[in-house]
Amino acid sequence: MQKITIAQLPAHAGEQVKIGAWLSNKRSSGKIAFLQLRDGTGFVQGVVVKAEVGEEVFAQAKALTQETSLYITGEVKEDTRSSFGYELAVIGIEVIHEAVDFPITPKEHGTEFLMDNRHLWLRSRKQHAIMKIRNEIIRATYEFFNENGFVKVDPPILTGSAPEGTSELFATKYFEEDAYLSQSGQLYMEAAAMALGKVFSFGPTFRAEKSKTRRHLIEFWMIEPEMAFTEHHESLEVQEQFVAHVIQSVLKNCPLELERLERDTTKLEKIKAPFPRISYDDAIKFLNDNGFDDISWGDDFGAPHETAIAESYDMPVFITNYPIGIKPFYMQPHPERDDVVLCADLIAPEGYGEIIGGSERIHDFDLLKKRIEEHKLDEEAYKWYLELSKYGAVPHSGFGLGLERTVAWISGAEHVRETIPFPRLLNRLYP
């Protein structure tokens, strides 16, 4: 008998098959037992009918405990009542390992309890669905950049300098030198772009930011493209095409997961390029006109401000041209103004906040050197970065997309802690 996965069941309708699975839940009566089975590829119901399998197998099915591992044999049958569309008419059960007193039961549990048991919580239907959507976003990311001529480059995680200063970095010793866990691979990606034209990285980044909001993690993953010979407006087009591609890929390839999460997909189906744009100046005016007296020109936006702006659109919205004083040293000044830079943040709808930050980068050596001095950064540590604008400088732009915030938005997750397998939070380093 062929051993297959749950995901392969639809191709074997009417056949007898064998699957390896865990029992996630069960219910039974005097004559029939329903086994909720999972194997990592999906979920399926196994139906055990006493009259068809006999007393011994039926008694075995009724005695099964949650998360016991099994080999199940049965016939694949269509089931129009389930979203999966198939069920397994069980004829045989082989217990691999009996699980006793699995701590996460079908009842309600508190968040801290679930986080303490994150290694087991991942097995639940909701967490499974979020991880599958995360995986699809990753797959679609590689697809988009590979199809558009980008080269994958891996920047270092240990660095001797920081793109945005060292106030929110984790410091460590690198033998006799001071080093930091990377908060961004951007500067190294700029160097790679000068060699390879269009590049992207995809890796972990770290922010020693003492924040407990639903949008923040200490360790998270970033997608960071950099493009030579590319101006800011051209970068915005790449950003919106990338996000639209990811959305459409999830809608196409994760319908069961979105349904399991009860995600309103009509909101996602609207997401198509181009995205609306609003200047920082107009955003401040909009907020002030709508009762936000706590913000004025020169301030950065908080979560309530971003949410208010996003609620005026049913699409992601770019906020462009922020004040130079609240942005990093490497951003290119606006050609017609000396108080703002050529940058944009992409704000996701439904209160999920900023998912992309990007800008055109300074490529003038003297200006870049001046900015480094103004930000009181160690010029020696940035010597290599300055040399990028010394030897064949060109206009170039890039951006960074935060994976977990994007997963949260697309999946409808309430908190980013559910969008990464093992979240690192201000008060959590376990498990």
From TrEMBL:
Q: Where in the cell is it found?
A: Cytoplasm
* Keyword entries, A-Z: Aminoacyl-tRNA synthetase, ATP-binding, Cytoplasm, Ligase, Nucleotide-binding, Protein biosynthesis
- Pfam families assigned: tRNA-synt_2, tRNA_anti-codon
Q: Name one GO biological process term.
A: asparaginyl-tRNA aminoacylation
Domain of life assignment:
Bacteria
Write out the transmembrane intervals. Answer: none
The primary location reported for this protein is cytoplasm
- The catalytic activity of this protein is classed by the Enzyme Commission as 6.1.1.22
Domain called Aminoacyl-transfer RNA synthetases class-II family profile: residue spans: 131-431
The UniProt entry, under CDD domains, shows:
AsnRS_cyto_like_N, AsxRS_core
The molecular function terms of the Gene Ontology recorded here are: asparagine-tRNA ligase activity; ATP binding; catalytic activity, acting on a protein; nucleic acid binding; transferase activity
InterPro entries per record: Aa-tRNA-synt_II (IPR004364), aa-tRNA-synth_II (IPR006195), aa-tRNA-synth_II/BPL/LPL (IPR045864), Asn-tRNA-ligase (IPR004522), Asp/Asn-tRNA-synth_IIb (IPR002312), NA-bd_OB-fold (IPR012340), NA-bd_OB_tRNA (IPR004365)
Annotated catalysed reactions: tRNA(Asn) + L-asparagine + ATP = L-asparaginyl-tRNA(Asn) + AMP + diphosphate + H(+)
> Which cellular component terms (GO) are annotated to the entry?
cytoplasm
EC class (word): ligase
| NCBIfam families in the cross-refs | asnS, PRK03932.1, PRK05159.1
Its family? Belongs to the class-II aminoacyl-tRNA synthetase family.
Q: How does it assemble?
A: Homodimer.
Q: From the Swiss-Prot or TrEMBL record, give the protein name.
A: Asparagine--tRNA ligase
Which source organism?
Answer: Planococcus lenghuensis
